[in-house]
Amino acid sequence: MSNQKYSTDDKLKCLRLFLPLRNPNTPDKKKIDILNAISGVTKIFLDLVEKKEEILFSVLKTLRHLLQSENSIVRALSIRVLRRCCNARIIIEHLEKLNIHFLIVRILEQQKYNKLGCVETFKLIYQIIHSDPDLMPRSFVQSIVAISEHEDDPLRVTAIMTLAELSLFNTHLSAICGGILTICKAIIDPSHSQIQEFLVRVLLNLINSPKTKQYVSTNELNIILSPFMSVFEKSISKKKFLTCIASKRAIIYMCRDWGGLIFFARNPNGLKGILHTLKLPSRKINMLTIETLYSLFFLKMPLNDGEQIEINYNIPNLERTNSQSSYHHIWGDLDLILPLEQSPHHNLLDNYVAILLVAFMDVGLFQSLVDVGKVGSKKLSFYIANLLGELLHRSNRILPSRLFSSLQSLPSLFEIAASFSDSPFIRVRASRMLSELDKFARKKKSKISLDFHVYLLLSNINHQKSVKVKRGFKSNELPINVNQTLKIKHDKSIADQEFESRMKESKVISTEDYLKWNFKTISHLLNGPLNNIKYLDISIKNKFMKNYLNFLDPNSGQFCNISKTQKNLIYIGISVQLIGVLLNHSVGCNFLKNSSFIRSIHLALRMENEGTSTNNSGMKRLFTPTKISKTLTKEYFTLIGNMTNYKSGLDILLKSGILKSLQKTVETKGRGDLALPIIISLDYNLTTITRRFLSKVLHFGTKLIRLQATEHLKFLWRAGVNDFSDWAIKMLVWQLRDKDVTVAGAALDLLDECCTRSPKCLETLVSCRPEDLSKFGIKGKNLLITLLSMPKGFDHLKEIKYIDQKLIYWEKKGIIDYVKDLDHYLTSIYSYKKHNYNDNIKIPLPPHFFAELVKTEKGANILLERKLIPKWINFLSKIKFLKNASLEINNNLNDLGGDEIDTEIVKKEMKNKIENEVKIGGSDNVKNQENEINKGTGKVKRKGKGERKGGINKNEKEKEKEKEKETESKKRRKGVKNGKERAKKKDEFLFNSLKIRAIIWTIGSIASSKLGYKILKKYNPVKIISNFALNSNQMSVRGTCIYVMGLLSEIDEIRKKLNKYGWEYPTEKGHMIAIPTFENRAKFFSYNQDQYLGSYPKNLKQTINIDYSTLNTEKNNLIKNLKDIGNTINEDSSMKNLLELKSNHPELFLDPHLFYISYKMLEYYKFRFSIRKFFHFLFRDIFLTEKNLDNLHKDLFIDKKNETNNINIKNNQIGFDLSDLFENKSQNENMQNNAKKIENVTNNKTIQQKYSFERLKQLPLPDGVNPKNLIHFLKEDDFDRVLSCSKQDFLTLPKWSQMHKLKECGLL
User: Fold this and answer.
1) Which residues lie below 8 Å from residue 605, measured CB to CB, with a gap of 6+?
2) Best CA proximity match to 1164, nearest among 161, 97, 141, 92
3) Which residues form the HP domain (predicted)?
4) Which of 23, 837, 1192, 1231 lies 20 to 30 A from 1040 at CA?
5) Is 225 exposed, middle or buried (0-12, 13-18, 19+ CB in 10 A)?
6) Which distant-in-sequence residues (6+ apart) come within 8 Å of 1069 by Cβ?
């Protein structure tokens, strides 16, 4: 409700807008203008209703009257006005009291006639959901459910989304109307693939909460599995197969949530049912199940040909200008080329996969795969064999040794392959599977074949270290064989004659045509004899070196015009070897320094920088974009980069001016095709010269160059360049100031990667005293938190007052936000997406503030001074696990500090009632009442200031009652506040769950360090967390405990306790995984399904009391057929009977009471949408007056639900005079006027009155006469006179004939 105050004139103007709407002579166009105007002043109306409740009834009745207008726009705008007024709880309450909801449902389900009205109705429903969902009319929900199940309805998706949202806010109402069942059916509908994940998330939300899981039955969840289970034929239709695909996606979504996984694990039709589908006769279903298993375990499907997808890197395209991806090096994905070593962060994906794998193992995954693989098709056996190999590979890495030892040998498969008792077909298939497993194992052991340029870079980086290349490569795939060390030693000492023979064999001396050269012999010479200074001197004198350098000289036009193909890479490799041989000796350095090759390269770079195409010597431009993309011209930078790997080579480049020319070339705009190979080819392992060059590029280069230079720093870091922490970290800190967000983000990513794996990098970062990193979002904040783990970082953050600020935040809500962010991150990763899965997928655990704080003694002392740990432990220790209840109760949640929580909703409601009923005389009074509630006595002693010996004074009692009425009316009127209070009540359980999980994460994170565990050791955190993991009724809490137990498994002292409490862990450290033992797994996967609270359709007698004795035969027959129409067996006959009744007795379908009965059926019974439309068709001619709508509850029946509200409706069903509201009239006069109005209403009869032809032709029409159906109000005597036939004969005429007669006489 708005706090703005409006003047009396504004309120009067607002009310006067409604007056023309009540006049039947007001044209529709004017009504539309008025309703549009009212939509803009609803705030004034709500402010007026807050003080004058009698106004509300008159206005709502006016809108109710407009909902029956013939104009569809008027009806739609009336709903819009209602929607904008539904902030107030009192207005939502009166939608049912005044029977407005029936009229709105009729508009919604007659979409053909009012599309705008349907849209406004859905907006109205959405408004009620978010204002006060507890007051949602049941008729609305039944209508939404019917639309959601109607395949051809254009509003079906909107209805499903609305129903899903309602299920979160009012689960009970959705469940009893069949909404949750409808959601389950919509999940496996192929046409709803775009909203499928949202629907699954809604369903999982209901399952995870003990408060709402009672409304979700096992049968409803089994609907998701049913498409798989119900295929028993070999061939399958396309529609059914698409449904199976939708079911597959839903299974993956559900299994990636702890609630869904636990449900499937304990459900006999869950994980076991998924494996059972492998044995079904349909090959399509078999393959779909295999795809499901691959996706569940984040594995990549192999190729159909039987070959695994290989890592393939083509020759790089240096013209690439894509600057969007900051995670890919120019040669490919760095995560595949140079994968990171084991991260110090906790990989949450390993915990999930381990639990999932164990759950499948418990239902016989491996044996089922073997059984199917030995009898399945060749294609199926291949996929199963690869899946077995992948799962065995992962099991060896993440499962405890006891669990893995039972799988390693696969005894049954070996037995089948070696046995001759089975059929040859089965034996051959088993042998083939073993062969595929052997191939898979060989591929896992084989090294990744690297791109030639990547190999050169790695060789240069490790050249000065005198060690082998860190990453494996296949030497036989490279054009240079550098591993034949013994042969090289032998070749150095060969005889002079043999050397001369090889020189002649190479043909380099005899001819300058490189096509005639023997490059294999040249390679042997470079690897052996030419490393001897004696033979090197000979090669220089006999023109061997001179001819080869002339081949490289751009002026010769040979090397620079060779096309860029994989075959021609041999020229680059041998050229790199030759320059390396020359630079290893002073003789070679002098020769190279004075060669024309160096001068030509310098000249070509100068021409490029000056922008000239030719020079005085006739040399043409070398580094054109065409040559760079199609020839080996760009490999000149590879040769220059190889020279920077030697001190002598750097001297040559400096003195010749090549390095300065390179710097100018890099700074040239629009030549990224030159800048990128220059940056990545230089060596940064030797001196500071190239590092300064890289620093200038990072500072002053173009956006693309800066980004690629930052990415190359990542390559250098992973390749192990010298002293990276001393010089590169400073560059990255500078890059954080970059104006471009992409460049700064790439620098931050690399800083995070380096500092979390290298203490030296973290020390350098602290010494740089970086600016506020929190402006970079979550990654920047996490990096700041990581600084807390070092004493220098702690001092730096303490100095800038970061710690003091964050302590306050983390105490109040930081630990809650940590869990929320983590949930959001996990949801985004676990979402089903079509990306390539592999072993490199990792979900690192973000750093926790308190975990990093306790890694230093100063931080640990601060945490102890705050005394937060005892509060957290006290909070968890008071949680009670109830086996057959829907809540975990904490009796003293306020001990935690921060936000106040109270999960005992019933107790809180009792408290509120007492506070409203009793005059609060002081704080002691309230405390006494609370104590008596807690004792459960139910007796409340009322003590207050007005208590006397003889009792409380009567005047004071009256004052108390008046105050109570005022407070109650204010609460009812302030619907927004009440709605927020109810939302808080609904969120209390969710908030309590977050608190539990947040504290478990906090305790586990603190205990994961040695210093932190010393602090927590006396509280035995392992026992507390294990207790929650096995006994909690909240599935999300169990999942959190799995992650946290894995986090604790790294501490040796904790490992011993894990065994004591029934937990296992991998022998090798670094995986941070803990799995419950077989006995504890039964508890972990237990799913306590409380009594199902969703109800089924009730008998009509249980919902409406009908006095059948007052009804005639036709009316009883009508009600009977309306009830039977929901039965598919009686549907046709019932429809036929109802149509006959409408033809023979049309007056029945104009009876307001029968209308009410039929719409009550729609409210309580579940009918298909087509049947509901048939209901509307039957009663389409009825026009309900105000008297009809106000008296629907009378005479024939009494609605139990509204029985107590009839008095309020009676007292307020007449309109009012606006002047009465603001003129100074006495209260007695107003009361007398109201009494007279009430008497007039009670004396009115609802019996339909007949009029003469002449009266019906006059305007205005009598009260209660529907202008659409004047013929039904015509006296029977006038039929023969006006229409020349009796009433019975007229009703038997065709409709077109009836319309013609009515037009002639003027009754249409």
Assistant:
1) 623, 658, 661, 662, 664, 665
2) 141
3) 1245-1308
4) 837
5) buried
6) 1050
pLDDT for position 1212: 32
Residues ≥6 apart with Cβ < 8 Å to 567 = none
Contact 1085, 266 (CB under 8 A): yes
Residue 151: Cβ-neighbour burial (10 angstroms; 0-12, 13-18, 19+) = exposed
**In the 3-class helix/strand/coil scheme, how is 703-747 assigned residue by residue?**
HHHHHHHHHHHHHHHHHCCCCHHHHHHHHHHHHCCCCCHHHHHHH
User: What pLDDT is stored for residue 307 in this prediction?
Assistant: 41
Which of 298, 294, 276 lies closest to 286 in space, CA to CA?
A: 276
Asked if residues 665 and 609 have their Cβ atoms less than 8 Å apart, the reply is: yes
User: With contact defined as beta carbons under 8 Å apart, do 1251 and 1265 qualify?
Assistant: yes
Burial (CB count <10 Å: 0-12, 13-18, 19+), residue 1057? middle
Which whole-number Å values give the CA distances from 572 to 125, 514, 576, 679, 1047, in the listed order?
71, 13, 6, 18, 49
Q: What type of residue is 1075?
A: I
* 801-835 CB burial, b ≥16 within 10 A, e <16: ebbeebbeebbeebbbebbeebeebbeebbebeee
1231 neighbors 1136 (Cβ within 8 angstroms)? no
963 conformational bin, left if phi > 0, alpha if psi -120 to 50, beta if neither: alpha
At residue 568, φ and ψ (nearest 5 deg) are: -85, 5
Beta bridge partners of 1104: 1199
Residue position matching structure tokens 């000056």: 610
Tell how far CA 386 is from the center of its chain: 30
Determine contact, residues 300/837, Cβ cutoff 8 Å. Answer: yes
Angle between helices 1113-1124 and 1152-1164 (to 10 degrees): 20
Helix (H, G, I), strand (E, B) or coil at 347: strand
Six-digit token string for 606? 């100068």
* Length of the chain in terms of residues written: 1308
Residues 6+ apart with CB under 8 A from 80: 35, 39, 120, 123
Instruction: Give pTM, 2 decimals.
Output: 0.74
CA separation, residue 1247 to residues 729, 1265, 1279 (Å): 91, 12, 21
Residues in the chain with pLDDT < 50? 1-2, 305-329, 409, 464-490, 834-836, 884-954, 968-969, 971-980, 982-987, 989, 1097-1102, 1195-1247
Q: What would the DSSP string read from start to end of 613-660?
A: SB-TT-PBP---HHHHHHBGGGHHHHHHHHHTTSHHHHHHHHHHTHHH
Q: Is 290 helix (H, G, I), strand (E, B) or coil?
A: helix
What does the block give as tokens for 994?
């977050």
Distance CA 842, CA 847 (A): 15
Instruction: Report the C-alpha gap between 501 and 934 in whole angstroms.
Output: 106
What are the structure tokens assigned to 673, written together? 């095709």
For residue 816, what pLDDT is reported?
A: 92
Q: Phi/psi of residue 563, each to 5°?
A: -70, 150
At CA 857, angle to CA 856 and CA 860, rounded to 5? 90
pLDDT at position 308 is 38
- Position 842, amino acid: K
What is the separation of C-alpha 926 from the centre of its chain, rounded to a whole number of angstroms?
A: 45
> Long-range CB contacts (< 8 A, 24+ apart) of 125-128?
125/162, 125/166, 126/162, 126/165, 127/83, 127/86, 127/87, 128/86, 128/92
Which residues have a Cβ under 8 Å from the Cβ of 986 and sit 6 or more positions away?
Answer: 169
Quick one: which of 848, 900, 1211 has its CA closest to 1043? 848
Do 654 and 689 contact (CB within 8 A), yes or no? yes
Residues forming a β-bridge with 1199: 1104
Q: How far is CA 1246 from CA 68, 102, 487, 1214, in A?
A: 19, 19, 115, 16
Report how far apart, in Å, the C-alpha atoms of 860 and of each of 33, 854, 855, 1011 are.
69, 4, 7, 8
